[in-house]
Design brief:
The protein is mainly alpha-helical.
Length: 80
């Protein structure tokens, strides 16, 4: 999923293009038009509702960093 989202990243429009280091998903990409983000979040919450899974996830720094990087792609997207 992370690699799928990375394939449709663009520079954020929150800053001028030269100074912008933040990238966001391009909502115009077919990948995002045909799939939605919110079911992913819902599934993730359901998975973390299992204590043993949540504990494992929260104890693994690499998983946390990957998840935060993934979520950051959706911060500032589609500024309409």
């Amino acid at each position: 999923l992370l690699y799928m989202m990375e394939s449709c990243l663009i520079k954020s429009e929150l800053q001028d293009e030269e100074n912008s280091l933040h990238v966001v998903v391009n909502c115009g990409e077919a990948l995002l038009k045909n799939n939605t983000y919110w079911p992913l979040v819902s599934d993730f919450i359901n998975i973390l509702s299992h204590q043993s899974v949540a504990k494992r996830f929260l104890e693994d720094h690499g998983l946390l960093v990957t998840w935060m990087n993934f979520v950051s792609f959706f911060q500032g997207m589609n500024l309409n």
